[in-house]
Amino acid sequence: MPSLRKYILCIPLICLQFCLLLPAGAAAVDEFKVKREEIYEFTQKPTVTRNGDKVTIRFTSKANCDVTVAIEGAGEKIVRHLASGVLGSNAPEPYQKNALAQTLVWDGKDDQGEYIDDKEQVSVRVSLGLKPQFERTLFWSPKKRISPGNRPQFAAAAEGVYVFEGGGVDHLRLFDHIGNYVRTVYPFPPDYSSPEARADSPEALKLALGKVGGLKWTQFPQDGKWFPDWQGLLSGTMLTSGSDCGKTGATKYGAAASAMALRSGGPGKPSQLALVMRSLNRLATDGTTGGLPLGGPTTAIEVPKTETQGGEAFPISAAFSPDGKWLYLTGYADYDTVKYGNFLPCVMRMGYAGDNPPELFLGSQKYADHGKDNSQFHNPLSVAC
To answer: What Cα–Cα distance (Å) separates residue 301 from each residue in 32, 71, 315?
Structure first.
């Protein structure tokens, strides 16, 4: 049966490894690395014999390298993942440990446990080495809601609608005007256009995210590489503006923004984005921070602590001035008072690029000053310029 006598030699482009994060340096980490020998040759080429439904596969590798054995059907589609791993002392089943000569038995079934009746139409593939390729992400969609407890924020532009949502995993994405996903603005997309950013060096990721200002970085002792710090109790976000970046509370209930504003940058230029909650985060629609530091001043307002007030009020609406210099905020309410419909009767204003917190623009920062005539605010919920 010549169709059962197929073997392929694969040379690895990427080696996958898992190691523990230990502070003892490279020598300690080496102890936990996969002990593979990067020699990808057969000393005995694969052979196949068949006895009814049972198919026996034999081969001998020249070294303890990665070996994958698969059964392929029409169009070289894998119908049974028979074995995969590194030969040697820790070789996984069904490989024999401490052996270069291997004998494997295929029971004639596919990955679902069903017998393949027409075995003349399948091939055995024995591969030495690894060449991982991305196929798809399971259970993911750019339109999937990640948190029913946080309101998404929307900002319309000529190119589409920017949508922010938090709830443990902050994300900001662009959809066109008929709902098609276009691209992700945050998490920040690395720029690998330069050879230095693509290099396997300690500074590579810093260069790839070089246009994101204000990130904090940590150098890991395992390999000396720099990675940006992730914020929050569960290290779930690089943003610093919201309720998910503190050291208390479960990150799954927090978000980086209770309000978002956008100002168009004009033809061919990225627009400005403001994410606001406890403080200001500055982004640009091209996935950078537009030349400004990410983190800005505090935007929350302290309020008295009572049975129905939590001591800190956040805005739920934000808008840029036409020139982009100012950011206006309103709809201030702490978590508890929202349930009672009480919002601070004020509009606040702050400089977008500056370091000063917002100042009172109109109205009052006291709950008791709600009014009902033309000189007062009652419950301001939205602001626009």
So the answer is: 50, 64, 9
The pLDDT tens digits of the residues spanning 295-343 come to 999 999 988 776 555 578 999 999 999 999 999 999 998 655 555 567 8
Of 285, 282, 260, which is closest to residue 155 (Cα–Cα)?
A: 260
Residue 231 DSSP symbol: B
User: Is the CB of residue 275 less than 8 Å from the CB of residue 284?
Assistant: no
List of long-range contacts for 38-43, beta carbons under 8 Å, 24+ apart: 38/12, 38/63, 38/65, 39/63, 39/65, 40/9, 40/10, 40/11, 40/12, 40/65, 40/128, 40/129, 41/9, 41/128, 42/7, 42/9, 42/128, 43/100
Q: Residue 106 contacts by C-beta under 8 Å, 6 or more apart in sequence?
A: 54, 55, 56, 57, 71, 80, 82, 124
Cα distance between residue 80 and residue 4, in whole Å: 14
**How far apart, in whole angstroms, are the C-alpha atoms of residue 245 and residue 237?**
7
Q: What is the DSSP letter of 159?
A: T
Enter the pTM of the model: 0.70
- Nearest residue to 244 via CA among 305, 171, 182: 171
Digit-coded pLDDT (tens) for 254-278: 889 999 999 998 888 999 999 999 9
Relative to beta strand 8-9, strand 123-128 is: parallel
DSSP for 306-342, written as a single string? ETTEEEEEB-SEEEE-TTSSEEEEE--B-TTGGGGT-
Query: Cβ atoms within 10 A of the Cβ of 60, count?
Result: 15
Q: Tell which residue, 267, 268, 273, has the closest CA to residue 285.
A: 273
Q: What percent of the chain has pLDDT over 90?
A: 62
Give per-residue pLDDT as tens, 7-48. 444 434 333 343 344 445 555 666 777 778 999 999 999 999
